[in-house]
Amino acid sequence: MNGVPKPRPPAQVAPAEAPGIRVLTTLITSVVIVCALYFGRTVLIPITLAILLSFLLAPLADWLRLLRIGRITSVIAAVLVALLVVLAVGGLIGVQIAQLASSLPRYQATIEDKINTVQEKTLGRADNLLTRASHALKESGQHVQDNAVAQPDNPDADVRPLPVEVHEPSASPLDLAQRFLSPVVNPLATSGIVLVVAIFILLQRGDLRDRMIRLVGSRDLHRTTTAMDEAARRLSRYFVAQLSMNAGVGAVIAIGLVVIGLPGALLFGVLAALLRFVPYIGSWLAAAMAILLAGAVQPNWTMMVWTLVLFGFVEILASQVIEPVLYGHSSGLSPFAVIVAAIFWSWIWGPIGLILSTPLTLCLVILGRHVDRLQFLEVLFGDRPALTPDENFYQRILAGDPDEALSQAEVLLRDNSLSAYYDEVAIKGLRLAYNDMARGVVTELQLKRIKQATLDLVEGLEDVEDAPLARVPATEGPEALPHDVLAGGETLVPTVDGTEAGGRVPVLCISGRGELDDLIAAIAVQLLGKHGLEVRHAKSESFARDGRAVEQLELAPLVCIISFDAEYLPFYLRYLIRRVQQRVPGATIVFGLGREWVHGATPGAPSVGDLGNANLVATLRDMTEACVLAAESQFGARRVPVSDDQRARDAADDEAADRRAEREQHLEDGDPAARVINTPV
């Protein structure tokens, strides 16, 4: 029948999934891929370098094509420009190294003096100790040698070893060429392969893209195209931004070293730019070499200190200020991922793998973002939060850590209102706890932690102001909202605190029977109080046996009934609404928080016909707006901001009243659970 709500499903706890053949297959596949990367590095490294070089040269080739010089010509021109830049940088490094090598003998005396100074002030005592120990060992060895000489002469002692000379044949020109050119042949061959493959990739980008789409999945063209576009966009932007950033850092370092007076300033500027491609340690390697040379050039320590200051200032400014703005926090990798990737790829491919670790891992993260079976890569190495704000909130209160939950709230409240935080984070997080309680997986200790942590969080947000509500013109009145949003009686019941004279309107907030309903009631009390309403809290079960609760109900023109059970419309909530309507016919009733209420009942949904003229709300923001609008328009009251003095007086009065009520209740029936809980705002 439509009038009877659907019963709740029985509480069930899903058993943990046992590892199956899918996990074993994934593990074997991962091992095979790692082995292929390791043993096939001779072939894979040039191809990978060519692919990444094509991403770097693609914007330049596209720009040259805009000049109408042809596709092939633009690609070859882009590759030649890159080759000329590499040759120019290599020639500059060679010239600077030759100049420094010719100047090193002049710095020998300075280096020796500084080594002696460091040795005297730091290692002098240890050196003296080692010298004494060596003298003692020599004396002991001399004593043993004298004893050996005193023994009878060995007849074979006069036999002297024959001198042996080894004559190598003179090396042929072929041997000399092989000896000196072999260290250069492999890098040159690899560079040639990289350039040739990069040229063909740039020439056939469209064809290779279509073949990759067909290979990966032509059935889902949208997902495949999105993944490839994202990878190309992120990699191109990453390489261009990093190249520009490193070139700028190298230029600043070179200019700074020229001002300081360090020889080879251009060399160290180029090294600083190139080594910054190595994550974390590259720039400091260049700094170490420059600092050592500065210490060798000048007898005092001034140049060495200024060089250290220059590298430290430029690196901190670049990494902490400029790079976040330039990259826009959009590289897609977490700092943990960068470190792990550097370790893994340097183990697989050596120094080249260390340089390529960041772009390769970025490709894997993008792949995991669009392929379901590889989603763990995006979770482990991506920069997106692993948990949503409501999941993080629930995890923290479940662990009994309100401090971290409060820290998260402070961050979210910078861009959101207090009511939005409660609706989107706290209430959704408590609903996760509500669902776990329905499954029977929350223990008593965990429930206690949830309650205490949530109350501590609400108390910590007491001083945070909520965003102002949307104002409704006085001429429109309640008709400005839909009929099922604000409904109430026609007569104004007598109220306390001079409601008719423009005072604060009393609101009675009634929580349901659920274990977590008192928590959302505490949040509702805080929000309503911040908007100038006088709010008191009562439990639903107290109306069956406490006359004072009924008396408070008769004095409240606004009644909020709030519970997580509202989604199922249980009998006790429907009965409570009918009883409130019978007891106080003119009261405005606000009921939630269950679901996105719709006007009229949908087929198969619990009937809302038994709720009468109660205002159905789905969020705390809607509840606050309904109560404030009813207080302003229906009862002619104005919201009065509550001052600190008024809060203190109300707290003192309520505390005294609570003590008297508790003593009276103990005298009557000794049942403290039946008394109404009055919460001052």
Keywords:
elongated, disordered N terminus, five-stranded parallel β-sheet, single chain, 681 residues, Rossmann fold
Number of strands: 5
Beta-strand percentage range: under 5%
Strand order of the largest sheet: 2-1-3-4-5
Shape: elongated
> How does CATH name the architecture of the domain at 470-674?
3-Layer(aba) Sandwich
* CATH class descriptor of the domain at 470-674: Alpha Beta
N/C terminus separation: 43 Å
Largest sheet features: 5 strands, parallel
Oligomer: single chain
SS element count, helices: 22
**Mean of residue pLDDT values:** 73
Mind telling me the CATH superfamily name of the domain at 470-674? Cobalamin-binding domain
CATH fold descriptor of the domain at 470-674 = Rossmann fold
- Structural class given helices, strands, pairing? mainly alpha
**SSE string, helices as H and strands as E:** HHHHHHHHHHHHHHHHHEHEHEHEEHH
Proportion in helices: 55-70%
Rg from Cα: 39 Å
Indicate the low-confidence ranges by residue numbers.
1-8, 471-502, 598-605, 637-643, 663-681
